[in-house]
Amino acid sequence: MMQDKTFGYRIAKTIDADVAVCGGGVAGAMAAVAAARAGASVVLVERYGFLGGNATAGAVAQFNSWQTANGRRVVAGLADEVVARLGRYGGAGEHATFVMSTGHRMDRVEYAPEVLKLVLDDMVQEAGVRPLLHASVLDVRVTGRHIDSVHVLTKSGVVELRAQVLIDASGDIDALQRAGATFLELDDGEALQPATMMFRFGPIDFARFEALSKTEIAALARRGYDDGQLARAALHSSRDPFSADGWFNIGRLGIDATDAMALGAAEIEGRRQAWKAAQYLRRCVPGCEEGQLRAFGTQVGVRETRRIVGDHVLTSEELLRPEQFPDAIAAGAYPIDIHPAAGGELRYEGLGGDHAYQIPYRSLIPVGFDNALAVGRGVSATHSAHAAIRVMTISMAVGQAAGVAAAMAAQPKQYGKVRAVPMSALRERLLADGAQLA
User: Which PANTHER family is this protein grouped with (predicted)?
Assistant: First the structure.
């Protein structure tokens, strides 16, 4: 029988800041850097000993969709700086267009996840951000509509963070969940998008592997799925800049990643899926005969969990029109890309032409709170709209915008009120910093 129990704990240390960012994935890291560069004092909380989230721990290894189908750039700003810094380390490939194993065309930058850890370290430290690593959100204290503090569990005990503004970039929106935020429900017929265990495999003879036609790749992917060797009918991969290895994104794990037991079970199953897939690559895919499984992602890459109810709920209809928002703070052109929780296929609705969409600032603001923002895959969007805006390029752009907005809200006499941020000033600052808003 379940019983409610209350346990007390002692605060080991209190840290004051203008902005507290919970979650050090690419959205959170960009938010922290942008806020610090805008003059705010910033503490960045991350559960691992490194930053990057899905981009490093999840080992996604490619930043997709920087431009429209016609080639017009819609993501820039800090995201561009990340790629430039990766390049200086030798840890990024060229911006290029490719055809996925499903036959869809996409643009991307391939990168080395380990090098991205260094790049994000450099950026937060140079900006003056105080990173609090190996730390997890324990509790959030709220008075009315104001978040007073975040309690974080660390190796040295519970640390209290008192900030004017909270940015929840935790992916699962754990801080706002503990504060009592309201989240969007799935509609009938919808299911959470599945997670994937990335894996590194090599060496690959890329001359032979990349010479395969779209038809040949699709047939190999379908054969592997039908034979039970692949969890989905795909052979999506990206190339490691330092070697002849590739990172493969071909797993499928239908879970709610906010369920701790289910998440652990999925990571075990994800490694099994990756091992089976690696054996199939060796046996059946030209160019992969000499390869072997080199590494797993530190964690599964999670596509979808909680999405806040925000001041505006972004819809797929607004993306497809596309709606022009007066408070647009970021843009994107990634398609509506829904991976079903089971089966080998996906729903992919490309945009085509010069089509791009906007993300409004109101979709970052959780209802019921005056001094909080959400970024990354937890912003306020329907299931189908989220399937487009969840990718890491767009998340970096949204994170940058949230960081600047939080710094503005943390100014004296603003009292952290994120709705009081003047849109004209926010948008002007983002444009001056190289962001694209349309």
Answer: COB--COM HETERODISULFIDE REDUCTASE IRON-SULFUR SUBUNIT A, FERREDOXIN:COB-COM HETERODISULFIDE REDUCTASE SUBUNIT A
Which residues, including other chains, have CB under 8 Å from residue 278's CB and lie 6 or more apart? Answer: 199, 201, 248, 291, 292, 293
Task: Could you please state the CATH topology (level 3) that the domain comprising 11-190+304-432 is classified under.
Answer: FAD/NAD(P)-binding domain (3.50.50)
Instruction: Show the tokens assigned to 382.
Output: 């329907």
Identity of the residue numbered 279: Q
Residue 1 has pLDDT above 50, yes or no: no
Beta strand pairing call for 199-202 and 237-239: unpaired
CA 408, CA 413: separation in Å to the nearest integer?
Answer: 11
Token digits for 417?
Answer: 């009120």
* CA end-to-end distance (rounded Å), the chain: 54
What SS3 state is found at 247?
strand
Confidence of residue 259 (pLDDT cuts 50, 70, 90): very high
| Cα dihedral 411→412→414→417 (10° resolution) | 60
Q: What is the rounded CA–CA span in Å between residue 309 and residue 420? A: 19
What would the pLDDT profile of 17-45 be if each residue is shown by its tens digit?
Answer: 999 999 999 999 999 999 999 999 999 99
pTM of the model: 0.96
Please say whether the beta carbons of 244 and 204 come within 8 A.
yes
**Structure confidence at residue 219 (pLDDT):** 95
Local structure of 382: helix, strand or coil:
coil
| Residues near 297 by beta carbon (within 8 Å), at least 6 away in sequence | 57, 58, 59, 197, 198, 199
Do the bridges between strand 336-338 and strand 347-349 make them parallel or antiparallel, or are there none, so unpaired? Answer: antiparallel
* Sequence-separated (6 or more) residues with CB below 8 Å from residue 189: none
Q: Which amino acid is at 349?
A: E
Name residue, tokens 């505006």. Answer: 312
Reference 398, options 23, 7, 2; nearest CA is 23
- What residue spans define the domains of the chain? 11-190+304-432, 199-296
- In 285-380, which residue ranges form alpha helices assigned H by DSSP? 316-320
